[in-house]
Amino acid sequence: MQKPMTPAQVEAKRERERAVVTQMIGVYCRGNHGTARGQLCDECSALVEYASARIGRCPFMATKTFCSQCRVHCYAPAQREAIRDVMRYAGPRMLLHHPIMTVRHGLDTLAAKRRKPEEA
Question: Most CB atoms within 10 A, among 37, 90, 111, 112?
Fold first, then answer.
C-alpha cells in the first residue's frame, strides 16, 4: 500500500492536469477553429476557464486517474460533451505536440492505478 499524497503533491497534480487540459484545448482550437499557436477562440477560452475551475474544486484529485473515470461527473452536459470532443481530437495528437507532457500524464495515470486498483 502506498502512502497517501501530501497536499503539496495533490496541488502539483492539479496544476499538471490544468496544464494538460489547457494544452489539449489549444491543440483542438488550432485544428478546428484555425487559431494561432498560443491563442484560443472565445469558446475554447471559456472551456479552459470552466475546466480549470472544476479541476480546482475536485475533491478526488489525490485518487482519480481521469475525469472520465470518476464516479462523480461535475461537468455540465454541454461542457462534458465539448471536453469529450477535445479529448477525441487532441488525445492522439498530443504525443506529437507535447511528448513530454503526454508521457508524464501516462505515468501519473499508471501511478494512480497502482495506488487504488480498479473496482469490478
Answer: 90
Report how far apart, in Å, the C-alpha atoms of 51 and of each of 3, 13, 58, 112 are: 28, 15, 10, 20
Phi-psi region of 34 (alpha: psi -120 to 50; beta: other; left: phi over 0): left
Instruction: Please tell me the distance from the alpha carbon of residue 60 to that of residue 72, in angstroms, as a whole number.
Output: 9
What residues contact 55, with CB distance under 8 A and at least 6 apart?
A: 14, 17, 18, 21, 61
Cα separation, 27 vs 35, in Å, equals 9
Rounded to two decimals, what is the model's pTM? 0.84
Q: Cα–Cα distance between 77 and 111 in angstroms, integer?
A: 29
Q: What is the distance between the alpha carbons of residues 61 and 9, in angstroms, rounded to a whole number?
A: 10
Q: Tell me the residue ranges of DSSP E strands in 1-120.
A: none
